Amino acid sequence: MLLLEVVLILGGLVLGYSAWKVSASVDQSLHLGGVELLDVPTGTNPNRMFYRMEGQGLIKDAFWLRLYWRFNMAGTALHTGEYRMTPGMTVRDLFDAWRRGDVVRYNLTLVEGWNFRQVRAALAKHEKIKHTLDGMSDAEVMDELGHPTVFPEGRFFPDTYKFVRGMSDVELLQQAYARLEEVLAKEWADRPAELPYRDPYQALIMASLVEKETGVPQERGQIAGVFVRRMQIGMQLQTDPTVIYGMGERYNGKITRADLREPTPYNTYVISGLPPTPIAMVGREAIHAALNPVPGSSLYFVARGDGSHVFSDDLDAHNSAVREYQLKRRADYRSSPAPQNGNGNGKSLPDVPVQQEAPAVPPAIGPAEAPAEAPDSGDAPKQ
């Protein structure tokens, strides 16, 4: 009888001590020198994390934490990613963050008007992204994304994408690709009749021209209207950004009359209609403008120098506006479509070289080698 009492007393003491140790281990403060990030890699289980944290000096009593997790949090998912630890934080606080999946999220911003090289440069520069596409050609990248016949330019939606450490560049591009498809399909479905586009891909190409020509957001629809009316009557579009894109890495911040005459597949001073592909990423507003051009009769516009434009219905009015703004010409002056010397059919070239500012983002402007003809439009929504 006495032995049984002793055993029960000792058992109670052991259980009490164990309960105290478990509670103390969970309520202990993390040993931090400041704000720190704790990385939970894919496939890591809680037991490994406890011993790793103990080895790093962040906690004590990993054994007791294992017991607590086993009896109180068994089956709780341990979300991959980084967790922010702040001074005064306890292990219990960290467990709550693990339970919520409260991982640190990072931002990647893809900007309207960027080309695909700039997109790839932004991905490669972000140290929290898992880089799997380094050294691949653009065609190999699209194959990796599951769209082997699609030309990449303009096929990704500009936005701020949130991700956790270790997300791959492929996953982020897949999100941006799917988002562009979604927005384009919605805008295409709501389009008015009598637009000069054969399919959504042509609307996307037009949207990229509008994106690159627009300095004041409110003018997108007017600029689209000028280009659409030119297409409808067979006038060349004559827009400088297509020349720049076709020049690729040769572009040094300005274009000349020789550049305007160069027969690249993208040069809308030489070709009729749209270029074979988009020349940049486009936002929803540019897509909407391309599919909802502002009605009117203007066929020309000239930059005022403050980002806005003067729109003209006829050649005389346009050339008058060009002369007015050439008097106070700045480095970023441009007339687009160009001032005409002939009968206003949109096919003659300006008398003076057209000056352009160098782009704000340094990577190369256009493709190293432009496609000779329009590539497969791939997964664009059908009519």
From TrEMBL:
EC number(s) given by UniProt:
4.2.2.29
Instruction: Locate the region Disordered.
Output: 328-383
Keywords annotated in UniProt: Cell inner membrane, Cell membrane, Cell wall biogenesis/degradation, Lyase, Membrane, Transmembrane, Transmembrane helix
Report one GO cellular component.
Answer: plasma membrane
Q: Does the keyword RNA-binding apply?
A: no
Tell me, in a sentence or two, what this protein's role is: Functions as a peptidoglycan terminase that cleaves nascent peptidoglycan strands endolytically to terminate their elongation.
This protein is called Endolytic murein transglycosylase
The organism is: Pseudomonas putida (Arthrobacter siderocapsulatus)
